[in-house]
Amino acid sequence: MRILVVDDERAFAGILSVGLTAEGFTVDTVYDGRSGYLMAATGAYSVIVLDLMLPQLSGFAVCARLRAEGVITPVIVLTAKNGEFDEVEALESGADDYLRKPFSYPVLVARIRSLLRRPAAIAENEISVGDLVLDVARRRVRRAGTPIDLSGRERDILETLIRAAGTVVSKATLLGEVWPGEAEDVNLVGARVSVLRRKIDAPFRRRSLETVRGAGYRLVDDRPAADRHAESSG
């Protein structure tokens, strides 16, 4: 699998390239938006890892041009920008995922692998585990078609767990993802997860948000096997 890394911070891009190569990927690296766009437009890559603040052409513009030209390669944005509107603009420009710097490297790898598992033709505005669906751009959540009202922090936790695709996510990772640079007490995570579970599981008599003692949390498709089979064969 070939990955294109587009980031003007050369030291950071080099570290990322070494790490992804160790994970078994073939990695190409460029340092400006125009070069990134030209290489991405070839369609030769399985995933594009893209910074937003780039010389010559911004990450927003790179995404928009690629999608306008029919390039459907998944794009995961890495950025130091913290604004919610920046995230919305990136997703509306065509990005499939969004991670703020500093981020957890294992989460980045998990999200890349999650993107690689998705059928290329699927629109990436919605992500899901079973019948629990998050519309990333509109920040809306529903289960089996029923809307669920979550706070911003709860949605961020849910998004991280959905994108991990059944993989255990530690409290420390969730703390870094949802409270980047803001908090150090992992007890915040446990309290928020408890509230999230009461909203996404309890009203539906479900147990999809699992606690893995000593390790963290994971989100699973807990529907009966017959329901899962009916969906996959339908």
UniProtKB/TrEMBL annotation:
GO CC, sorted alphabetically, is: cytosol; protein-DNA complex
Q: Name one Pfam family in it.
A: Trans_reg_C
Single Gene Ontology BP term?
regulation of DNA-templated transcription
**Per its record, how is this protein called by name?**
DNA-binding response regulator
Task: Tell me yes or no: is Phosphoprotein among this UniProt entry's keywords.
Answer: yes
State a single Gene Ontology molecular function. transcription cis-regulatory region binding
Residues with the 4-aspartylphosphate modification? 51
Keywords from the named record: DNA-binding, Phosphoprotein, Transcription, Transcription regulation, Two-component regulatory system
Q: Where the record puts its DNA-binding region(s)?
A: 124-221
Domain Response regulatory span(s) in chain numbering: 2-116
Ranges for the OmpR/PhoB-type domain?
124-221
Specify the domain of life of the species encoding this protein.
Bacteria
Which Gene3D superfamilies has this protein been placed in? 3.40.50.2300, 6.10.250.690, Winged helix-like DNA-binding domain superfamily/Winged helix DNA-binding domain
Q: Which InterPro entries match?
A: CheY-like_superfamily, OmpR/PhoB-type_DNA-bd, Sig_transdc_resp-reg_receiver, WalR-like, WH-like_DNA-bd_sf
